[in-house]
Design brief:
single chain, mainly alpha, two-stranded antiparallel ribbon, 2 strands, elongated
């Protein structure tokens, strides 16, 4: 699973119930990814971000709308 995720895969075929939890652990988002996704979504939900394609986070990081889509995809994996 770890190698699959490293190579860009987001799932794995399983053949035994004992493989479910390790697969979820390997392919599910990490706590840091979840936190990042929620930060991005909140930033674009702010009134001052309305209609903008690029915004700056409170930490100075520049993010684009494509990051918003990535953030949403992370949270959909929960």
């Amino acid at each position: 699973c770890q190698q699959g995720r490293l190579y860009g895969f987001d799932a794995k075929s399983l053949i035994h119930p004992n493989q479910i939890d390790p697969a979820h652990a390997a392919f599910g988002p990490s706590k840091d990814e979840i936190e990042w996704a929620r930060l991005i979504i909140a930033a674009f939900a702010a009134p001052e971000a309305e209609g903008k394609g690029v915004i700056k986070l409170s930490n100075g990081e520049m993010i684009e709308r494509l990051h918003l889509e990535q953030a949403r995809a992370v949270l959909e994996r929960l």
